[in-house]
Amino acid sequence: ENREILAKMGVDCAELVKSGGLKKAKLGDLKEYLKNFKQPQAGEKEDLMLRVELHVKSRDIKIDGKDPFEFKPAELRKLCAQRGLNPMDERDILLKNLIESAQVR
Fold it and tell me: How far apart are CA 12 and CA 24, in angstroms?
């Protein structure tokens, strides 16, 4: 399913993340990527770039059997606290910390 969505997009954000060129993506491309994966599209370009980067990097990661992006903020706070991470931050930072801790394990 992810491959089908990516194939329909004009810009390959996943490739831009891997090559370090995500800053070159247009705001509309970032929003389109996030929309296709049912992720929030609000915020500054840096916020959207972080969400896209996290989404791309977490494709193969499961936390408690779920995609990290499926968790609601309260669930993210609980999971972070259980792993000794700061649970008192905004959703994007909670996701970032959780994904990074899962990659280390």
Answer: 11
